[in-house]
């Protein structure tokens, strides 16, 4: 394999040893060649091997995704076509438009018919992971990290591949360990990336919206729920909104970013996939009296983002048949328990707000969410700085705002990889001093803490809330850059509509990845004045699409994810992946412990991966098509969590479970998939006995709505006794029907004003009732 830099001045040679039948041996020629020297070397190799066919051209590639082995030879995954999708201060970000899997055959590897059949099936399974959908990378910008972290830390080497957002960490582990560098590989991030050019008051700027999906505890909707023993949650996605001036590269550029987070409710809970019940019951799988896993999760957030951690919980406050409310009360108990052991200034700030209930009222949900977003943003702040030409053109990552902090992090002693408060203060003081000497340089600002939003699936309702937060943040960013005198953007501003479309696209993309369908966007559709009947029809069919994907497609999709991430490694003499009844295989390949089989034949466990950490140092060099060289340091696995700490999974039988569904024929993994509806909730939190949490860290979202909703609701008693007269009627309606999507439409509710055919397009009433109410089809 021949690699060169962008200017075609430096040429390197990579050799893959095919004589070893089982281990991957990759060697890099230490000589740096010129173009003519390299071609001369190839000519001599070709002539010396003419008797065996000589050299044969295979393909041009733009980076190695990694290597993988099933039961036969190793395979090399390559990027053969790429597309520019954006640039951050001159650092290009690419998506993949074509990839290839190249076998590295060994003459001694002989497969019998069974192994050959299984080998082909594994290959087909891996190919369902569509690298051309929602994966992105950059050679010079660490796209797996936030802008603030990139400018605050000077980490180099393989440590970047250990980020929770690098999905090919396992695939590249072998070559990185062999070469002790990352010259030839690219780090793939999975999620969403979109960059657009917008304008305000005649001034143009660029906006990039990035969503990074965690590879830990990754999977599909019903097979990955809640939290695992290591504190990793399902559907964990970091969203970053970056905006910067649209100026030539040789000029100083102002740049700003804000980060928010979404993730499954950090409790041990699950839902059973059912082909008859479109709305499976929610089950609290185990009682963690001390909420250790929940605490680990929030400690990880503190380590990644600093303090405060603000939790916005959007699930329902009341239901006729308790589903979401089961988690609502337990989540409140967990937060209250954790906060008891924390000093007041470090406590988690927690808010229940029933978005579903408010979306059914004649209230402006986005305006109410915007008021809370302003409150949260005032606590965390945003990141802002000016990047000088030498920094933006020669390497944004060489510029540093904050010194790296190497201390320990915990909820009791919050800090972050972005720098702690004292360091921020010292840096700001230094910047102020510099600014006094040069009035053109503005004082940098830093984000400390994060807003964590969740509903049940963390897709539909969560995306609405994240848009509201992003809009408020955009106002602050534009104000910081001097584009606006005010820091607020009205919902009727054209910028609000532009941003809404970007967040809507992101929501659809993330929903397809995790849930199987585009997101339910009823609130966005209503905001744009879309015809109500069209919205209801769209929500109905997305519910069906999500149901079909969850019931028939997710098992195979989960298997493909497990193979791609290295959670399952095929091994001779061991059961094949599709013969197992659990999706947690304890790293059952040659590097992992022995396989532990689950006796419960209809259950799939929902646990995290067991990646073992392997770090090495690498020299500095540059090759086009290959990631910027990095260097790392030796490290071990700890019980604590961080952005880069993989964990060794356990195989205990008391983990959370979800129902197994049989595999279906191969489909493209990250193609069209969808989630069923999401409906959400309101109010201050209560413990399991219905006692109000008097801590000032708990909030009632109704305070900005001035609706007068009572805070005295008992989460265990589902009666209407605790309701105020102002919201009694609405809550009774919610309890007596179950809606199918964020649209809030319900069969029983509509029966008073119109026929179900208006919503279902002529489907039988029984069928519509099954879709909308989640009842058993043959009940």
Automatic annotation (TrEMBL):
It comes from Salix viminalis (Common osier). Residues 126-516 form the SAC domain. Signal peptide: none annotated. Component of the PI(3,5)P2 regulatory complex at least composed of ATG18, SAC/FIG4, FAB1 and VAC14. It catalyses: a 1,2-diacyl-sn-glycero-3-phospho-(1D-myo-inositol-3,5-bisphosphate) + H2O = a 1,2-diacyl-sn-glycero-3-phospho-(1D-myo-inositol-3-phosphate) + phosphate. It is found in: Vacuole membrane. The keyword Ligase does not apply. GO terms for molecular function: phosphatidylinositol-3,5-bisphosphate 5-phosphatase activity. The chain crosses the membrane at residues 57-78. This is PHOSPHOINOSITIDE PHOSPHATASE SAC5. Pfam families: Syja_N. Residues 625-647, 736-756 are annotated as: Disordered. InterPro entries: Fig4-like, SAC_dom. Its main location: membrane. The keyword Oxidoreductase does not apply. One of its GO terms (cellular component) is vacuolar membrane. PANTHER family: PHOSPHOINOSITIDE PHOSPHATASE SAC5, POLYPHOSPHOINOSITIDE PHOSPHATASE. Keywords: Hydrolase, Membrane, Transmembrane, Transmembrane helix, Vacuole. GO terms for biological process: phosphatidylinositol dephosphorylation. It is a peripheral membrane protein.
């Amino acid at each position: 394999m021949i690699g060169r830099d962008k200017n075609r001045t430096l040429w390197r040679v990579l050799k893959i040893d095919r004589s070893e039948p089982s281990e991957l041996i990759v060697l890099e020629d230490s000589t740096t060649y010129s173009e003519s020297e390299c071609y001369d070397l190839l000519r001599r190799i070709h002539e010396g091997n003419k008797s065996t066919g000589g050299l044969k051209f295979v393909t041009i590639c733009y980076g190695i995704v990694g290597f993988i082995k099933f039961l036969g030879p190793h395979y090399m995954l390559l990027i053969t076509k790429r597309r520019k999708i954006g640039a951050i201060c001159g650092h290009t970000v690419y998506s993949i438009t074509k990839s290839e899997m190249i076998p590295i055959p060994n003459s001694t590897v002989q497969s019998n018919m069974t192994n050959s059949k299984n080998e082909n099936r594994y290959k087909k399974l891996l190919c369902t992971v569509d690298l051309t959908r929602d994966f992105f990378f950059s050679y010079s910008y660490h796209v797996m990290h936030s802008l603030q972290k990139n400018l605050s830390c000077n980490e180099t080497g393989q440590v970047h591949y250990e980020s929770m957002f690098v999905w090919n960490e396992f695939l590249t582990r072998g070559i990185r360990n062999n070469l002790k560098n990352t010259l030839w590989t690219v780090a793939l991030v999975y999620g969403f990336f979109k960059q657009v050019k917008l304008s305000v008051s005649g001034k143009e700027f660029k906006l990039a919206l990035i969503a990074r999906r965690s590879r830990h505890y990754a999977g599909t909707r019903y097979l990955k729920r809640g939290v695992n023993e290591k504190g990793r949650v399902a559907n964990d996605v970091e969203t970053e909104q970056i905006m910067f001036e649209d100026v030539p590269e040789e000029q100083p550029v102002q740049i700003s970013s804000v980060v928010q987070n979404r993730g499954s409710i950090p409790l041990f809970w699950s839902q059973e996939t059912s082909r008859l019940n479109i709305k499976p019951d929610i089950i609290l799988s185990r009682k963690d009296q001390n909420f250790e896993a929940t605490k680990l999760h929030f400690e990880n957030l503190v380590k990644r983002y600093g303090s405060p951690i603000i939790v916005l919980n959007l699930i329902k406050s009341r239901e006729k048949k308790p589903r979401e409310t089961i988690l609502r009360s337990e989540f409140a108990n967990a937060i209250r328990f954790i906060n008891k052991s924390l000093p007041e200034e470090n406590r988690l700030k927690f808010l229940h707000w029933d978005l579903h209930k408010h979306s059914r009222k004649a209230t402006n949900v986005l305006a109410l969410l915007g008021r809370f977003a302003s409150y949260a943003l005032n606590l965390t702040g945003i990141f802002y700085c000016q990047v000088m030409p030498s920094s933006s053109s020669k390497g944004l990552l060489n510029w540093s705002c904050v010194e790296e902090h190497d201390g320990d992090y915990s909820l009791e002693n919050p800090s972050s990889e972005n720098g702690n408060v004292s360091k921020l203060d010292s840096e700001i003081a230094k910047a102020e001093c510099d600014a006094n000497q040069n009035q053109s340089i503005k004082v940098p600002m830093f984000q400390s803490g994060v807003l964590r939003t969740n509903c049940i699936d963390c897709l539909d309702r969560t995306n609405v809330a994240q848009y509201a937060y992003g809009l408020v943040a955009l106002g602050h960013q534009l104000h910081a850059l001097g584009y606006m005198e005010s820091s607020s953007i009205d919902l009727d501003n054209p910028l609000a509509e532009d941003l809404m479309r970007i967040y809507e696209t992101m929501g659809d993309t993330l929903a397809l990845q995790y849930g199987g369908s585009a997101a339910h966007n009823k609130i966005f559709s209503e905001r744009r004045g879309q015809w109500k009947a069209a919205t209801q029809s769209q929500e109905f069919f997305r519910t069906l699409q999500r149901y079909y994907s969850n019931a028939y497609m997710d098992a195979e999709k989960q298997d493909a994810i497990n193979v791609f991430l290295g959670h399952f490694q095929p091994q001779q003499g061991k059961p094949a992946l599709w013969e197992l009844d659990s999706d947690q295989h304890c790293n059952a390949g040659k590097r992992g412990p022995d396989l532990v089989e689950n006796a419960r034949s209809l259950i799939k466990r929902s646990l995290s991966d067991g990646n073992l950490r392997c770090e090495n140092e690498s020299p500095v060099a540059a090759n086009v098509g290959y990631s910027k060289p990095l260097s790392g340091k030796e490290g071990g696995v700890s019980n604590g969590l961080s952005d880069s700490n993989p964990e060794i999974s356990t195989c205990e039988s008391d983990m959370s479970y979800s129902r197994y569904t049989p595999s279906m024929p191969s489909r493209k993994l990250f193609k069209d998939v969808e989630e069923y509806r999401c409906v959400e909730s309101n109010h201050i939190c209560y413990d399991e006995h219905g006692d109000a949490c008097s801590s000032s860290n708990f909030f009632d979202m109704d305070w900005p709505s001035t609706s007068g909703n009572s805070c005295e609701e008992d989460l265990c008693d589902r009666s209407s006794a605790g309701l105020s007269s102002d919201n009694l009627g609405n809550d009774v309606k919610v309890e007596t029907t179950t809606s199918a999507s964020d649209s809030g439409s319900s069969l029983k509710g509509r029966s008073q004003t119109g026929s179900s055919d208006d919503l279902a397009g002529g489907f039988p009433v029984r069928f519509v009732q099954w879709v909308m109410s989640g009842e058993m089809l043959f009940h």
